[in-house]
Here is the input.
Amino acid sequence: PVVTDAISLLEGREIKEDLTMTQIVSLFLEIKGPMFDDKMAKLALKEWVTEMGDRPLSQYKRIHAQEFVNSFAARGKSTGTAQRRIGSLKAAMRKVAAMHELDIKPLFEGVDLEVITEKRYQLTPEDESKTLSYIGDRNEISILCLILYRTGCRIAEVAGLPWKDVYLDTEIPYIDIRPRENRSLKTKSSTRLIPLVGEALEAMKLLKAMCLSQKYCFPRYTKNDKTNADQAAAAIKKRMSFGSHSYRHLLITRMHEHQIPEGTQRAILGHTSAGGGAFDGYGIRDMLSAKKRALLQVIQNT
Here is the structure.
């Protein structure tokens, strides 16, 4: 490419700007401005460069997009996530091309990616019995499983939980899920309060009594103020033979079965409203009573 550009210049012709993927994302973030931190674009770039390398766009072919998706499947990760990463990169390229008036190769346009979908694993009564058998167990994995089982939280939300966000001495004990220096949250609406009931409350009290760390609930998975949620998820998968997210799916199913109001469900799970906006009750302490009633109803009818 360098020689080609040199010859073009000697012949008096213009050379075509051939940016790398890193340059594209950097320009995209500059356009967005310092107040806008697009974590999705940064993550998409990191994973793309790791798998496909950081080359000028002209050196990528459309087949590389499918290979990127396939690489996720090969590592046991969601290929749907890979497709969303590509969507973030496409958005960055479109924005940079429009704002800088560049003729950027439409790398991913018109590509019909084959996404491998996996059937969600449904927890069996045996899986639940095994989880409940960990009550009183002082092992961190046992405690983590019980908290996930009764709260429906995402693995990173609990594995990276600092003690300052745990409230055990209030009328309704709860954990405060919010972005912290050691881990971010999936969406803005993920910021919320979750009551601790049943086995989750007992497990958290036991963890507190163990005093493993003054700063983090699960110090094994947070080193140098950086939480490794993948490590925690792998430990649960090894012990239980199913993914940690299955606990969240189970709670969703149970709340539907018990006809928990949709707004309360969203407030517990940290989902946006049906209309796409954040639910008004997210993070509000006044909703703790409604959330507690919902979670207790699921427990009592299990």
Summary: The first helix runs from residue 2 to 10. Residues 134 and 254 are 21 Å apart (CA to CA). Confidence is low (pLDDT under 50) at residues 274-285. The chain has 13 helices and five strands.
